[in-house]
Amino acid sequence: MIPVFKPLIEQEEIDASRESLELGWLGMGSYVSKFEQKVKEIIGVEDRYVAAVSTGTAGLHIALLVAGVQPGDEVIVASFNCSADFQAIGWVGAEMVFCDCDDDTLELDLERAAELVTPKTKAMIVMDYDCILSDHDAIAAFAEKYKIRIIHDAAHAFGSSYKGKMVGSFSDICVFSHDPVKTITCLDGGTVVVKTEEELKYVHELRLLGMQQPATVMYQNQRAWTFDVERVGFRYHMLNMHAAIGLAQLGKLDVISETRRAASRYYNELLRDLPQVRTPKTDFEGVNPFLYYIRVPAELRDDLRAELKANGVDTGIHWQPGHLFSLWKNAKAGDLSVTDRVGKEILSLPLYSKIPLETVKEVADQVKAFFQRHSK
């Protein structure tokens, strides 16, 4: 089976895991500090602060708290999104407001979002969907106009750049995911990027049960035994071994990005002339693609998936719209007609770091064969 995702686990990751275990400090320690420093180096700015956490979802929860979102507030979010965003909004007691996405980019539609702003709107979550980044200049202007906080969900965008600026270097609050299938994995993990030392201190307390234990102590593979707790916190810190694996991955960022871009461009080249298939409208310049998606006629998607699976090709659906889940079916929402359509058409094809171009061609040939038969 050609997998839709496949982690890049090589000798470097295995060695890093062993060395971190041999160190004998399994919790948050020196590797976490080095991982945060490397992420900040990749982002390339001095006016941002990086904190590693246990998962990207934990990062979203923390980001909403840092943004001051409280029960009764409203948070605008695209319904075409990962359920982690929706759960995090629920955890802080806020009311979710579903927004439509743009038909070409699949990013949150700012014109639709403007129709959803109320006096209760406290924040908006904006996610970069795969290989096309959001219009972050327009998002910043939107935030200024309506006086709201922006949580940039960059789970798909680590190592990508926007107008020459690395993702993570310009957002209000930015959250990365490093889960098992992301471009840079820590087995599981995430990073939160904030603008001030005060916000960083808040993140440090939130990720470690509210304990005011200096991170600098734990980064020496030690812990303080006397400290205060002034706020509710969570067990959201990153573990040393996870950070060690993440460091090994960060050392391969260039090859990870290059091979993923090359595969995505090849998919576009092979599939763009199929009338039944919509490919991403991008040349993939400056991005580190998390997945490769196509849009196909809704009535044929399940048949295509079944045929590909029968021929040894795994596929995915990213995502089912949030407003269709039972838990959120009664959430506030604007017009979601584009999201409804996209949710029935979207299909993820195999993409992973160092995927052979021969594999890309094999998958694309099967997609072309399917639609050639169904065009008659």
Describe the structure.
With 376 residues, the protein is of the alpha/beta class. It has two domains: 11-99 and 106-250, Aspartate Aminotransferase, domain 2 (3-Layer(aba) Sandwich), CATH 3.40.640; 253-315 and 350-373, Aspartate Aminotransferase, domain 1. Helix content is 39%, strand content 14%. The chain has 13 helices and twelve strands. It has helices spanning 11-23, 30-43, 56-66, 83-91, 110-114, 136-146, 197-207, 215-218, 240-250, 253-271, 298-310, 337-345, 357-373, and strands spanning 49-53, 74-78, 95-99, 121-127, 149-153, 161-162, 165-166, 173-177, 190-194, 292-295, 332-333, 346-349. An eight-stranded mixed beta sheet has the order 1-9-8-5-4-2-3-11, with helices on both faces. Helix 6 links the parallel strand 4 and strand 5. The longest helix is centred in the C-terminal third of the chain and has 19 residues, at 253-271.
